[in-house]
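Practice set, problem 2.
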Amino acid sequence: MTTNCFRAMLTGIVLLAFTLSAQAEKNWPGWRGPYSNGHAKEAGLPTKWTNDSVTWKAELKGKGQSSPVIWGERIFLTSELQNGRQRLVMCLDRNNGRTLWEHTAWTGDPEPSHRMNGWASATCATDGEHVYAFFGRGGGLHCYTVEGKPVWKQDLGHFESPWGTAACPLLVRDMIIQNCDSEKNAYIVALNKKTGKELWRTKRDDARGWSSPILIEAGGREELVVNGDTGVRAYNPDTGSEYWYFKNTRGRGTPTVTPAGDLLAVLCGRPAPIYAIRPGGNGEVTATHLAWTTKRGGGRDLPSPIVIDGYILAANMKGIVACYDAKTGKELWQGRLGAARTIFAAPVAFGGLAFFVNDVGETIAVRPGEKMEIVATNKVAAADEEVFRASLTPSDGQLFLRSTQVLYCIGKRK
């Protein structure tokens, strides 16, 4: 394990940093933050706000659902125009929302996508020098300098799925890793992050999906863990060889795997139990590495869960959140977050609270524990046509909330 790879300790599992630099922690360098688990460690972030707390808001060109990625003074987003016929990568000034640069990454006839998805849903990744944006079958994987200079692009193949694309790229040392689940020719691939040269490619089960990989250390080795339609798999990040496989018969393994103490919490997109598995095995571990499984109440197409202080909180698309004991899987409570609204965005955590964003832009703060406790319901004055499906992004004392068309900056910078 390299000493310059910044890490956060959990019990039994080391969740490895998203990038090589320790600066990643005070930034938000990719999907679910510096450790791919939705946690921000910094203190002093806003937990309650109103529309008066909005420092600035920026109208975005086109529409998109990718979450804001931040490094220093720059915010990176993707967007699409003309119903997917044009794909954009954008960089905004975090101080005022002004567009610093934008590039058309791709134009052409759009591939199929679900009405709840679109063509700009995968969150970017950055190491502070380059930014990486993935558009699936339409556009592939693109690399730019953070100043906006195109570096390389790779066509990663023909993706067969009526759902569209949403799997996010992951930076691991000098590699950029991309999951490419598809009805045909599914695979996961690692490219040299500076040149785009393919380093390895590993076949996956052919099935629809958009789960993003995470990197952990368990049992003295690094494991690249990815959910999928047929189950969870772990790979050697340096070679792509498969370490272990846990079979899931219920399908639609789209939520990202989330570390929970010394276990991995797993959800399925279809109505199915939540379960926890032990990492670190070899071969098929279905019969040996299941820690617990618990029946989960209703709903499909769940966002990824969040784990705080030994509690797992998971929302469904109907806006109902359940809380589980991470060690045993016991369901502690279940309840609706406010009005009957939809939740697509994966929650984030800071200050001991979980923050869930619903489709009309309400952000509900929940305190994990034995009983349900809603701490705050926060709202911005969004237009009726705005839809919120991106995760909240915390960074340096501020929060960034993205709707399909607008980016909001909440709070004062430290």
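Problem 2, part (b): a different protein.
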Amino acid sequence: MNRIVVSALVSGLLWTGVSAPAWAQYKVVGPDGRVTYTDRPPVDRPAQAVKSSGAAGNNPALPYALRNVVTRYPVTLYTSANCPACDGGRTLLQGRGIPFTEKTVNTTEDARVLQSREGTNSVPVIRIGSKQVTGFEQGEWTSYLDAAGYPQQSALPNGYRQPAATPLAPTANPPQLAPEADPAPKTSPEPTPAPPAGKAPPGFRF
């Protein structure tokens, strides 16, 4: 695989930006209308909790330092079944205690979305912030994760559960079948009318 100089990662990883600093947990509005952010709830006035922009960072159980990195550089892993390289990448992330979102590519529609979104039809693909790496090479992944600021050893709290992997392409809802029309009620055949009184015309038989 081609190697990329690690120092280039810092400039390549783009922080998309949030309205509040990544470390902030509370929004405080002062008497003069001035808005400030803090990681501690104020005791003298009400405050509004600030939600993290990262999917995995929404877990309030994450410690501050890890939550900060997850918010700035969320990790997404694209995998498929029967993929040893995908298993290796997942094991690396889990071993370091890195929260990540896993998307599976197991159908034609999944592959189409991956090609459209990431410009490749190969897995595994890892995205760290805005940086994409295709294929698994442990040293390369480790370098990028280190540069992003992820801890080298797990800092996850006890009881933390990694979100389950989900298909990349949304599952289509099955078509709704129209209700069957009620069958027309059966009617008894009308009785044959009786012959009119009187003589029938010559040659006419009932």
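Answer key, part (b): Helices lie at 7-12, 64-72, 84-96, 108-118, 138-148. The CA atoms of residues 62 and 156 lie 6 Å apart.
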